[in-house]
User: Fold these one by one.
Assistant:
Number 1:
Amino acid sequence: MAKKAITCTVNGKKREYFIDVRESLLDMLRGNAGLDSVKHGCDVGECGACTVLIDGLPFNSCIYLAIWADGKEIMTLEGLSDVKGTISDIQQAFIDEGAVQCGFCTPGFIMSSIPIINKENPSTREEIRRQISGNLCRCTGYEKIVDAIEKTQKKRIGEKKK
Amino acid sequence: MYDFNTLYEPNTVEEALALKKAHPEALLLAGGSDILIKLREGKLAGCDLISIYMLDELRGVYIQDNGELIIRPLTSFTGITIHPLIKQHVPVLGDAVDQIGGPQIRNIGTIGGNICNGVTSADSATTLKAYDAILELSSADGVRNLPYAEFNLGPGKVDLKPEEILTAIRIPKESWDQTYGHYIKYAKRKAMDIATLGCSVNVKLTNDKKHIERLRIAFGVAAPTPIRAVTAEKAANGHAVDAKLLDIITANLEADVRPRTSWRASKEFRLHLVKELARRATVASIEKAGGKING
């Protein structure tokens, strides 16, 4: 089968991968890049467990051809912690608020929440729910996930005003 | 790993058209939120694909000097919703595509893929039908402009020749000027759901805002393809903006719709939705146009 070299930025570092053209971005990130936060869930874009940011926007990596990542900037959950491995505020908020139970959906939810926690103005809970409407969680009942996102957004807005 | 055979990667539209002519059986892959899923289900196993997703020349929204709005087919749903020209001239289209799937699907799904797929539930289709959109279909041999009204041939079947690619969706100025629209999607959930029924209405009022100059109503899932309710439109045009107008519209809707019973809803319920959604979307459109029922 046809193979191809692609170059993209993954979590801030420029990388080159030699991939089978039939691979999904999910296959490439888990298999070639070893980024296991990207979860292999439904494989058809329903559950959001494989959500990553491509040029800042959330995409389901299971229904995205790896070759399309050529020249793009990809961000996974691994890219949120600093060089020492200290987790980010949104990850800590998920722990503090009890928004993690089995944890399988968590990386996807956190990646979907990134665009909204960086907003200038506070979002309503309804707006937060809409932003995470492409992600499924079968454990938490969502309330605590919304709490964690709301809390982080408020904290970041507060810090910007200082 | 997806189970397809050969993947062609054209770098320009010209190359894509040449490839489509050489391999008419190969499927065009835009955002892939339908095709890649069908591949997972095994329905398209072994097919050949022409990936046009990376062709940025097929992405974006523009306005011509004559006021014609040009939507390139690879524009994502998110790209449509946030585009200033869409917000200014056809905000109803941005609202409609903002009700598709969830954020991730709206980032990958394209408006061209949505209509070329040819399903009756496509959320962009109703509004584009209601705005008399024109489709620019290109092949290596030339270009033809087809009214979108003539594009759907049956469920999942469209008048796109094997060697053709949709290269633009055009909305003439005459169609969006002084025109205000409203879309209602009725579904069981607020996200990640397919419409049980969709209704897109737009209205142009007379200068005094007292009469209907032009009313257009389109439905999704009220027939095997997205359709216009031309009988009700004819009855409404020229009518005064009053409560009787709504009764005249709803009384004439059954002439054009052909809803069916599916696991989502019965024919009777869909018929009820046809009337209720058309009524509500008409009221909302008139209000957006500055008119008032009984005002």
Number 2:
Amino acid sequence: MLRRQIKERAIRYIFFILAAVSIFIVFFILFFLISESLPAFQEYGFSIFDSDWNVTRDVYKIGAALFGTAIVTIGAMIIAIPLGLAGAIFLSEIAPYHVRTVLKPIIELLAGIPSIVYGFLGATLLVQYLVPTFDLLKGKSYLAGALILGIMALPIIISISDDALKAVPRDLKEASLAVGATKWETIKKVTFPTAISGISAAVIMGMGRAIGETMAVSLVVGNVMHIPVPPFDIFESGSTLTSIIALEMGEATGLQTYSLFACGVILFIIVGTMSIVSNILKERIEKKFKGG
Amino acid sequence: MKLNLELIKKPFQSFFESLFDKDNYNIKNLIVFISLIISLFMVVLGFFSAFYNFYIGDLNLRIIFIILGILMFFQIIYSYLKLNIRKKLFTMIIFTIIVIFLAYFLPAFPPKYDLRQFEMSASILKFLISSIFLVIIGIFGVSFSIKPLYNFSSKSKQYSAYFVLIISIILILVPLMLIIGNILFNGAGGITPDFLTQDVSRHGQEGGISKPIIGTLCLIGGVAIISLPLGIGAAVFLTEYAKGGIVVRIIRITVDILQGVPSIVHGLFALAFFVPLFGISLLSGILVLSFLTLPIIIRASEEAILAVPNSIREGSYALGATKWQTIRRVVIPPAFPGIITGGILGLGRAAGETAPIMFVAVVFIGAPDIPSLFLPIQALPYHLLALIYYIGAYEVEQNAWATAFILLGIVLSINAISIIIREKFRVEF
């Protein structure tokens, strides 16, 4: 009997260690990012957020990349949020059963397409399309980045908000239909507001993906470290936090490396926070309806 | 002085009433039908003209808008006289005025409106403006034609909302079709037996992609060996053993964070941590990709294990089984399809990632014939990246399409397998 207890306890600890591995991984990632980026923060302090990146003058301040990430993400969300929510509502509430069983796996497959493939098509087809359409000199621009990221964030937003909408209990919807509301009024006034925390989780998750996406963006955004004049000129080439790392890490030395690691730290903080917030929101909607 | 509208209305009313007479009732449906068709046509035309960069011509544009305007005018008159709807007509009247205005304005727009005078680096072209307005006016046209059809009831609102939703789902599916279709058409031609069995040569202009394929398979295999046991173990702990408390909370939060860490940040971390230890090697690549897939596997396995109802566990305990026996014999087997689905999805993600391995595991050319843990490899995503950079400098475009085809094929078939497993072996309780 005692042997059996010892064995049980040992197995419990083994599983605990396996689970604790992720703590170590996150700790290691944070530790190495911070230790490698510390020289850059020491050198520049808060002025690291200025826009001044020049390899010949050996100045590496990352403000322009931060601005690029912001503008590209905003653009992507303008495309992805309305389309994604419309798609989720269509899938979960309106689509007939057969259409749903076909569309859902297709959208999941869309999420599985590697970012390098998106980047390849973006760099060849999308950029070629944008040049004549907007009479651009070169198609690699914030606009191309925003379009690609918008398409890439769509499947995440759709599938998570679809789950959230599906989690809304049937009683609520049926009560609304029973008092004479149409299906659309029910969706607008009952289903959607009830699922709103899950839907915001989906939007935050999609935004996190857009901010952290690397290969596709670095191939279409043009990789020029500057803030365009005027700043809302989305037809200009630019760069993002991720694209600058992907492009320059290979040949970076000294201070440049530290500044690139600083980009990594900022990405980690932004996207990590978003991930935590969205998971809390997602758990909230699950808890809300579990009791009854 | 009060203006007597009835006097003005009467003659018109009799005229329109004869037009919409009970015996002649189909005229209303006919008008609505025509304006629906025209609006739909405008939406489709707008998308096509934006996509293929063509302008449909001044006269055609003017004719379409004027026809729509006239039809809307008839609908307004009809709704006013026949359905006695007055208050709700305001938006429809505004819409008709806009349509008539656009019939004048759009063809008069200059062929190219240069934004460079505002220091922006683009121009607004006529075809883009016209196609945007075609789509917007078309969508509103459909919605305003549905209104009289359903007597302005809330049903009409529902159908116009459905129409917008269907347009959006088409807009979502079109990029997917374009991606898959382009890769299929452009890539399939480049797939030959030589392409699959030879090594890369002359900057990827000749030869094949045998080594990148082998490298990617090695990565997938290594990731499976490391991350599956780790992820499943962690999920078992979190679902079966954990009883709350600070440590479990921390584990959950770190899994959330890990799930969000951008792939390029994983790459940076690996560059700082693994490369000094193992050099640029297959091992570094396997480790970093395992870290990337770990949260996906943990989440999927947790979900699968939580779906097993408690009554089964309690039945097992009642027979005197220990916790470990219960987990191994009772909980894991029904949860297994779900766990494997998550695991395979994670591997699919790992197979397509470029950013984490580009600094730590791969070379474009010159990997050893037999992959070794401590030497670099060639991998498909990185091969594709290098070819994209070479486009323009060398003749690699055909090979790039074929590589993308193979990569997409591997990743999508991995994902499809996992979806099939999920649908086929789903255990219902």
Number 3:
Amino acid sequence: MKVSRRQMLILLPAAVVAWESVMAGTPEESPNYKMTDHWWGMLIDITKCIGCGNCVRACSTENDVPDGYFRTWVERYHVNDEDMTQPVVISPDGGKEGFPSVAKEDEGKYFFVPKMCNHCADSPCTQVCPVGATFISPDGVVLVDQKYCLGCAYCVQACPYGCRFINPAKETADKCTLCYHRITQGLTTACCENCPTGARQLADLKDPKDPIHEFLRTHSVQVLKPQMATGAKAFYNGLDGSVR
Amino acid sequence: MSVFKDAGHLFRFAGLFVLAFLIFLVVRHFVVPKSFGEYGHYRGAAMGEIAAHPAKYAGHETCETCHSDIADKKKSGKHAHVNCEACHGAIFMRLPAPEPKPDLYERFVALVSRRIPPDPPLLRHAEDPTSVKPVLPDTAVLCARCHTASAAKPKGFPQVDPAEHSGGLPCQTCHNPHSPGMDASNTAAGGAK
């Protein structure tokens, strides 16, 4: 078969396009994990949190979070009896090494609030990304594509919960992935695995057998900043009205 | 056909537009990643890349495959729901990152490509239990982290003032950390409630 120069000029680019598609392939997924079968969230029980900082340390080890930055952190609230609009909040080094002791005689009430990405169903952070580098995955986890992110930090400003930062080494937006590499393998998140009191529990809202459903039915549960209508999926039990 | 008379220049111009559009399509084909738009306005392959991150906490089930004796001891005690790695640390440990090379070329490449630095290798206790051992935690620090009395902690949680409670003795003198209750196997004097 003789191929003319004209035919060659048409065939060659076509062959390149075909070869590209073959080489690119589709992303490999864990064989037993189907994204459409899950809708992930988190249950945080403030009445159980002792402020030990295990979650913060575990998260930083698991995800190689740089020092001084946090994908999850713990805050200690101090609210005076009659003025809940002015809580005193501390979080020394994200609560990584615990908190100073409080004597019984001290006035007001004290409690710990673990914070992390709320994996909002209508997240403001993914809406502002100009390049499509951050998104809500089909299983309800807000993720950042490190290769696509420009580091413009619009999302860092957009998050009403302050859960994002610019990773100083990668110069891209960084945040809690809900340990996506673990939950897709059937493991729980590093923070839940290491919480000694069970104050944090990973929840799969699409799994009818998940204890989250029973818990949500029988407890007074709240999300942070419900007035923002973010569809937050970090459910807090025993959340005080003073928490911002 | 009189409408198209003297309209040749318009056709040539339209041809240029069509050509530019075709070039745009070809460039777009090569520049936009294959999986972009697979699930939405993002790169679908990113999820696979994020899921490929190595886990360092293997989970208590992994520990229990070998340390079943400890798991049995823990089951009956108050620490039944405290997972192994919560005290012992992750069983996969990162080696310290290698020093960055002072090579001028390497630095130039890193500068222009904004290359994401590779992760240092992992040491795996589960794969090589004899040479890779988690550090035995110091109970004086470890136990105090959770059990030092503070009014900020939930009321029902067992809390002590370590200095007053044991006079500086290490906790495991009286308590077995895997089952800290004071039963027949843990009989030693002291320990104000």
